[in-house]
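PROTOCOL LOG
Step 1. Enter all chains and additional molecules of the complex.
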Amino acid sequence: MMRLLLALLLLTLPAQAMDIVEVTSPGGTRIWLVEEESIPIVSVELHFASGARLDPDDQLGATALMTGLLEEGSGDLDAQAFARARETIAARFGFDSGQDGVTISASMLAENRAETIDLLATALSQPRFDPSAVERVRAQLLSNISAAERDPDRIAGRAFIGALFPDHVYARPRNGTEATVSALTVDTLRAAHARALTRDRVTVSVVGDIGPEDAGRMIDRLLGALPATGPALPPRATVSAGGPDIVIPFDVPQSIAIFGHEGLDRDDPDFIPAFVASTIVGGGGFGSRLGEEIREKRGLTYGIYASLSPRDLGALYLGSVSSANDRIGDVVDLVRAEWARAAATGVTAEELAQAKRYLTGAYALRFASNGRIADGLVGLQLADLPIDYVNIRNDLIEAVTLDEVNRVAARLFKPDALRFVIVGQPTGLVPTE
Amino acid sequence: MSSLLGGGITGHLQSRLQVAEEIALDAGAFYSPLAFDQQTFGIYVVPRPGGGLREAEARLDAAIAAFLEAGPDPEKLARVKTQIRAAQIYALDNQQARASRYGRALTAGLTVDDVAAWPETLQAVTAEDVIAAARALFDPGRAVTGYLMRQPQDMEGSAG
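Step 2. Run joint prediction.
Step 3. Record the structure below.
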């Protein structure tokens, strides 16, 4: 019983359970740290604000391929020797890249911390790019690119991003094309590496069985051999203010639709009320307006959602749905109607109260493990939020008034700018490509 | 055995088919120790572009034969055990996975004691145990093979 009570307390009071401190390492890197001694593990999350957006036009995919090669041999170790070393100390590494950055997630046993950090530091600073590893990972990336060309979800996603971010680096495929990836050389990979992992662009969090001084030294050891600065980032994107829907023929029984328009930046003062409004209209699962009208009442889809999607250089508000080819036209009309309703009349007091209960109650679940806490702390820093944000976030949600959420709903939902990309054989919708 | 054969780039199948012979994009083994009814043990290979499935399957069979002949690499076996030990510690950090572990075991007809004993059971596995299990398992009479191809020519491949 005591344990159950404790678990309930932890779930309902995440703020009190989490003590985040800011540490500056001897080398000058800012770290957000949560000391958690109950389990002998340490999790480290690094985000470098670089990413595929820095790839030259003729080297698209360089960042993706480079990131995939960080665990394929470094320093004195070839790919297999590196994997053996990692297995020997039971370390867990994740390497990921996107348009906005390269993310490294590491979890380690506290007893193997020094060896793990040494191994990871080598992976970050001295990747080998051995020809056999390059060809192996290149073949995997090419296979992924080829699969994406036959995947209606990814076709729709690419077309939507291209339409909303015209003439911007975001419109380029982050994994590259068959031609650009095939042409990448070890020199271009080394250049991508030098652009991607630099100390001026890193955001760091540490969670686990480690104190502030050790955490600072550990991060200096991890980052010390990396270049100090990276190249200038591309300019902000101008999000398209609207345009015709795009219909891409594809031989599938269900059509996929991605829809949306410009959204709000994470540091926009209206972000929290917009987040609440978005949850009411397009939150995943049951009870949202889109879910109610399109799934529950009419059975037109298994799922529909819309959510805020802020990126470093421009923000989107986007959603996705799939439906049978002869029904997707109805779905498009219904979404447009809900958009117009949200913009014109906003939400009700009851909907606001329900959304607050859901959002405040579910927040703790985002911190269900050390790794997820570390990931979350990097996200908070990237958004320039205060270090006590976790403690006040639910208060911010609770403080949203009906007037406020409706003022912001009128700003968020832009029926005239709402644009659909549909991939499939939709009845009654004319292909545009 | 699943971790020894699969288990990433240091596993037997990837070491041989992907790194040494360079005929595969990916290879591995999969097995769930929890099932109420009969269980399956799977092995797979994804040939490099242009490589035929027939050739890849023959290489996969040869890799299994070599494993049966030589037995597991003792260092890999030791590392697999290290990973299993560490996984118990990492698992403390994931409430949902812990609940799931017990729930799945109970639905498969096991007991809480079985779940508790499982890590020690794995640590006690010897190379001889693995070979014995492999000999019992890899019986062509009980195996089925599935192929996924875009066109009939993929069976034979086009390159080399």
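Step 4. Note key features.
Chain B touches chain A through 26 residues (CB under 8 Å).
The two ends of chain B are 32 Å apart (CA to CA).
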